[in-house]
Specification:
The complex is a heterodimer.
Chain A (H helix, E strand, L loop, with lengths): L5 H29 L4 H21 L11 H19 L5 H18 L4 H4 L4 H22 L4 H19 L3 H24 L7 H18 L6 H14 L5 H4 L3 H26 L11
Chain B lengths: L1 H18 L2 E6 L3 E9 L2 E7 L2 E7 L3 E8 L3 E3 L2 H8 L11 E12 L2 E10 L2 E12 L3 E11 L12 E14 L1
Antiparallel strand pairs in B: 1-4, 2-3, 2-11, 3-6, 4-5, 5-7, 7-8, 8-9, 9-10, 10-11
Classes of the chains: A mainly alpha, B mainly beta.
Amino acid sequence: MTLPPTALIVEALQQLVLPPLVIGATLLLASRFVARKHSGHIAAVVAFMASLAVGNWLASIHPNWWPETKRSTWLPWLAAAATISGLFVRPLRWNALGYSLFAAVLAVAAIRLVPKDYHTEPLWALPAFALLIGLVGFGLLHLGEAQPGVAVPLLLATSLLTAGGVIIYAHSKSLMDLTTIGGYALIGLAIVAAFTKADVGAVYPGATLLLVGALFAAYHETYSDVPAAGFAIPALAPLLGLVGLLPLVRRLKGWLRVAIVLGPAFIALGVALGLAMANESLALDTEPEW
Amino acid sequence: MRSLLFALAATVAIAGSTFAADTYKLDGENTKIEFTGTKKDGKHVGGFKKVSGSATDDKGWAIKLDIETESLYSDDEKLTKHLLSADFFGVKDNPKASFATTKIEKGDKGYTVTGTLTLLGKSKEISFPAEITTGETFKLKAEFKIDRTEFGMTYGEGKVDKEVAIKVDVAAKK
């Protein structure tokens, strides 16, 4: 396996890794000192949105900022809007408002992220897209409430980072940048949550929309030999973590419960990345592609 | 009656040959479109294999060209895949690019071609100098630059140059 050139690694660290990680960790840590109640949710949502904005600026993903026709220009805005719906559901518990906003975000996402070809054929594509985001996003939100701490943000972070890996093997840099930024923002949150047992659940619907939306867009937009399963598995893997909602698993304590929530999903994510790496290659050992 | 019909047919034929426009069919064989993208430490060359259109002389020249963006090629196989993605040409959502002239003017040093270039669904008027010769074969040679970001191709700003050099070489027989 060839490592990327040093300059590329440094650039990635400066633009995609450290800023969101530091923003996520710092904001969550700071929020614990300011106000304990509900602070994790608000800090997580602010950190997630700030990370996307800073990452977009540093990496020049979309210099015009305002969404245009490209899906990658809509993704961060829709993900940010979905995190706000998460805030309404938790901690405010204005469920009707939260779910209504989320439904509205999904409606826009269906138009802006899902290619027209999939609006009618196959018939299940659009409902499956919306259902998956809703199920994973709010399923993890409930799991995070039952099991606050490192497990759930780490599960979503790993899914986003694996998605980024699959997407770069499919030769789409902008979508990879976005999932990587989201992933490292959640890693920052997970590090602090590991020690403080903070619940950062409000961010999960938005992070899930980013995850599923980026993978769907990459599957449609790219020309590569990465198989469809390579794109589907990282989107579906967080579902495996919902096993943590089962009463049997909820009764378990400590790292065993974390392992049961994370283990199967991590194995699935490894398979997805393996599929991408086995079927495509990157031009890292020669001249870097654009 | 027979001679009257013959005269009528001859008149129509002569009129047809006098007023019919000269049309040259353009395709991937006789029309080469290449682009050169540059960055700080290098450059890449690419082009399109499939184009279709026409060059017509009907009280002045008019050129129409459709480009099948999926036929894109480059000097690097992996780069080709990246160029096909939404970072650049977004071929799945924009399978065609097109160019249609609005004005072709003859000057002292050749022709100036003005027309509408549609790329990534965005249309913009561009103008470039060209050498044009006509006769049995329509020939057009042009080299010019466009700003890719004006068409929404904003990926890699600061790393990949905004300006892309375009080279057009047409040699189409009637």
